[in-house]
Design brief:
alpha/beta; seven-stranded mixed β-sheet; six-stranded parallel β-sheet; 10 helices; 18 strands; 26% helix; 28% strand
Length: 349
């Protein structure tokens, strides 16, 4: 049996593992498809995460150093890569009643040949409807963050909306903003292929930020008003600067990216005059701004329904699709070294 791990920063490899029997409350899934997470997982893979040597203290809501001698947040050689899996239930414990052998399911899990998951009162273990797309299913995670970004930005009918960064989260945000009734939806990304996909799924315009004054172009497209909502997924400091330039007076920047430190960022200029609000959107935070009406479970259930009933279309977003046998080399190439060649890498087993 093989699993995909990070043996060192920016080095992926397939490693042997021994499977184990399931406990009474567990199911074992034979994985058929999977996908990594192209955002925070890559930060971890590059050893750039604050979680390596620090931990987020929920009492103080601060990052604080880990205790001396404590296990590091990421241990290379043990750090498993991957985020979502789709497969068939092949074993179940005696306490499991919600799932049957042969059920096709989707859940969070690493890229490995089998995944063992809790099978009792686990809403994150989803049974897939007959004929449902595995490509939509592995977008279960990015869809939650995209939907939260749209909701936290308070996108409303008639709004002018800009989505910066057209990876999987940005692409899904484009679809949701348009379906929510936005009058104009603008995508921003330097990769032409990503812009083509965004246009197919709701973007009215797409801007290449390289050599372009994005803020000015957004003002031109909106009759000098600017964007009511800008959803920023790229984490690029110039992108946030452009957003502050292109936002309408009193508009909202919904910031989804887990950004690196900024070194050349100016909160004077347009930021001082446009009276913008910046909200930091994180779909997995609990409580979120609409709690208790909206909690993590409701966000996930809503996204799952939208993916399974075809309201969202993620077929174009799983690109490229590689074999599990080639997943280590492909992960390093498409997820880390040359992310411009992919949107969200799919893996077949």
């Amino acid at each position: 049996m093989k699993k995909l791990i990070a043996t060192a920063p920016r080095v992926a490899a397939l490693m042997d593992y021994e499977d184990r029997p399931v406990a009474a409350h567990e199911v074992k899934i034979k994985v058929a498809y999977g996908a990594p997470k192209h955002g925070t997982e890559v930060v971890d893979f590059r050893a750039a995460s604050p979680f390596i040597d620090e931990e987020f203290n929920s009492e103080w809501n601060l990052f604080m150093p880990r205790a001396e001698g404590a296990t590091r947040g990421i241990e290379f050689g043990k750090f498993q890569l991957g985020n979502m899996v789709v497969g068939e239930v092949i074993e179940k414990g005696e306490a499991v009643t919600e799932y049957q052998l042969g059920d096709r399911v989707c859940t969070y899990g690493p890229l490995q040949e089998t995944v063992i998951a809790n099978g009792v009162n686990n809403y994150k273990l989803r049974i897939m409807p007959a004929g449902a797309s595995w490509k939509n299913a592995v977008c279960y995670d990015p869809a939650q963050f995209a939907m939260s970004g749209v909701r936290d930005g308070n996108v409303r009918v008639g709004d002018f909306v800009v989505v910066v960064g057209l990876g999987a989260i940005g692409q899904i945000a484009i679809q949701l903003a348009k379906k929510a009734g936005a009058a104009i939806v603008v995508g921003v990304d330097p990769i032409a292929h990503r812009c083509d996909i965004a246009r197919r799924h709701g973007a009215d315009y797409c801007l290449n930020p390289i050599g372009t004054d994005v803020g000015l172009e957004v003002k031109k497209l909106t009759g000098k008003t600017g964007a009511d909502v800008i959803i920023e997924t790229s984490g690029n400091e110039q992108a946030l600067q452009a957003a502050l330039r292109g936002i309408a007076y009193g508009g909202t920047i919904s910031y989804l990216a887990f950004a690196k430190p900024f070194h050349d960022f100016n909160l004077g200029r347009e930021a001082h005059f446009n009276n913008a609000k910046i909200v930091f959107s994180r779909g997995s935070s609990e409580p979120n701004p609409d709690y208790p009406r909206w909690n993590r479970k409701r966000i996930e259930e809503t996204c799952w329904e939208l993916l399974m009933n075809g309201y969202l279309n993620c077929e174009d977003l799983i690109d490229p699709v590689v074999s599990f046998h080639d997943s280590a080399e492909s992960y390093m190439k498409y997820v880390d070294q040359q992310p411009d060649l992919s949107i969200k890498m799919g893996v077949t087993f």
